[in-house]
Amino acid sequence: MADNLPLSGRLALVTGASRGIGAATARALAAAGAHVVLVARTSGALETVEDEIHAAGGSATIAPLDLTDGESIGRLAQAISGRWDALDILVLNAASLGTLSGVPAIDAKEFSRVMTLNVLAQQALIAAFDPLLRKSADARVIGLTTGVAAKPRAYWGAYGASKAALEVLVSAYGQEVVKVSNIRTHILNPGATRTAMRARAYPGEDPNTLKEPEVVATAIIDMISTDNPDGYRVDLAK
Predict the structure, then answer these.
(1) Cβ distance 224 to 89 under 8 Å?
(2) Which residue, 17, 58, 82, 147, could crosslink 38 as a Cys pair with Cβ 3.0–4.6 Å?
(3) For residue 2, what pLDDT is reported?
């Protein structure tokens, strides 16, 4: 790739990179010149995205792992720190929808799984990669959220609560590091997008009426490529 690409020489890590918004974001980051670490549970799907990136002239490395396993996150951070000096971009995209239900009917075990991936794993990622992010000359952490985090909706309590917690974690981290590092944190609400999660939540919806994940990926590239202040937020649902 040419050295004049906007993200040339930068290292990015994208979770949930095997499909949907994560895969589209990984491809867009690579097209902009970044080397992208692709994280998801399914190695076969990750290899497909990696092949697509390489075929387009980009650079990527796959890292199949279960983010609900906190120790695996630490091992990944160790492996990356042994190969690269800094992490420039961290896209916190992986999430679980869970079952939509009334708050009294939320299954405790499933709620625990949703919170583990959507909140605990995200904090573990920030903690594990904080040292590498601090070494970057311009680090960006982007957390993907949902409209129901700020505007609660019936039957979306579990997912909305997990994303509200993610927003607080990412935003608080940004305030903690803004004056002592080059890390800036941003929040992005993709809005209605043609993804597998959206299809699960709205099974009767016509997917052709929704925007493609690439639209969200473009918005993420814009957030990263622009000198936005800490706490900058984009809402594509508007």
Answers:
(1) yes
(2) 17
(3) 54
Q: In angstroms, rounded to a whole number, what is the distance separating the alpha carbons of residues 78 and 75?
A: 5
Please give the span between the terminal C-alpha atoms of the chain, in angstroms, as a whole number: 35
Q: Phi and psi (nearest 5°) for 172?
A: -65, -40
Active site includes 173?
no
At residue 211, the 3 state secondary structure works out as strand
3-state secondary structure of 200: helix
> Cβ atoms within 10 A of the Cβ of 5, count?
15
Residue 164: other Cβ atoms inside 10 A: 18
Q: Count Cβ atoms below 10 Å from residue 69 Cβ, excluding itself.
A: 13
DSSP 8-state assignment for residue 229: P
Give the sign of the dihedral formed by CA 49, CA 50, CA 56, CA 59.
positive
**Rg, the chain, Cα only:** 17
The stretches in the chain having pLDDT less than 50 are 1
Among the options 155, 159, 173, 202, which is catalytic?
159
β-bridge mates for residue 140, sequence order: 89, 184
**Range 86-105 burial, b when 16+ CB lie within 10 A, else e:** bbbbbbbbbbbbbebbeeee
Q: Which residues contact 56 (CB under 8 A, 6 or more apart)?
A: 27, 30, 31
Q: Which residues pair with 133 in a beta bridge?
A: none
Angle between helices 108-115 and 157-177 (to 10 degrees): 30
Q: Which domains does the chain have, with CATH numbers?
A: 11-235 (3.40.50.720)
pLDDT of residue 70: 81
Identity of residue 72: S
